[in-house]
Amino acid sequence: MPFTSLMKDKVSVLKANGEVFEDIQASVQTKKTFIQRSDILIETGDLIQRAMSNGAMQTYEVIDPGFHEGLGGIPAGYQIVHKNLGLPEADKAIQSITYNLNGANNRVNNNSVDNSTNIVNNNGELLESVFALREEIKRLKLTEQETQDALEVVDAIDSQCQSEKPSKVVVGALVNSLPTFASIASIGSLIVSLLG
User: 113 in a domain, yes or no?
Assistant: First the structure.
């Protein structure tokens, strides 16, 4: 009789890092779960969930993964020692899973209402514009003193843009004090508009 025929349960493995592996053939016993797969890394603290035919859900915490390499006709797999979690423990364990997200305003809502307020300071374009302004001043045919004076103004603009609350009025006044060239006015206008 092949070992897979003994795997009558379907389980999900919920990893502590937020990964979820579903529809895994397993044999869930009172204190152990047997899984004949070696392509999933199961670690202490991970959760195993079994949906039962009566609609209930059982959740187990992995105490010892018990991974064993294959031998002869026996495939590699896990003989997991687990702890049965009651409903309050299971809910708490599932809620403590860490989700790693990146990017502006990313979020995960699990059976909850999102009442959060998100503030995103996406100043990459702003800093690029300040850099472009500095390069444009260097490119223009200004006297050495005019170039030096203009770059000091750009330093002040840069300092304002990197502050926690940059002042649009101050940056606008600084931009207006730069030499009057269309390219400078265009970049300066972009910088002011990016401040909100």
Answer: no
Q: How confident is the model at residue 1 (pLDDT cuts 50, 70, 90)?
A: very low
Alpha helices (H) in 23-180, listed in sequence order: 87-95, 124-139, 144-162, 168-176
Q: Answer yes or no: is 143 within a domain.
A: yes
pLDDT tens per residue, range 44-66? 999 999 988 888 889 999 999 99
The answer to whether residue 21 sits within a structural domain is yes
CA distance 66 to 49: 18
Quickly tell me which residue has 């330093």 as its tokens.
155
For 101-139, how does the pLDDT look when each residue is reduced to its tens digit (9 = 90+)?
555 556 666 556 666 655 555 567 888 888 999 999 998
Domain match, 81 and 159 both? no
Among 47, 74, 95, the domain-final residue is 95
- Residue at 119 is within a domain: no
Which tokens is 69 given?
A: 């390499």
Asked whether the CA dihedral 74, 77, 79, 84 is positive or negative, the reply is negative
Euclidean distance between CA atoms 22 and 11, whole angstroms: 6
CA 128 to chain centre: 24
What is the domain count for the chain? 2
Q: Tell me, yes or no, whether 91 and 138 share the same domain.
A: no
pTM for this one?
A: 0.45
Tell me what the mean pLDDT of segment 83-111 comes to.
64
Q: How big is the CA angle at 143 (ends 138 and 148), to the nearest 5 degrees?
A: 55
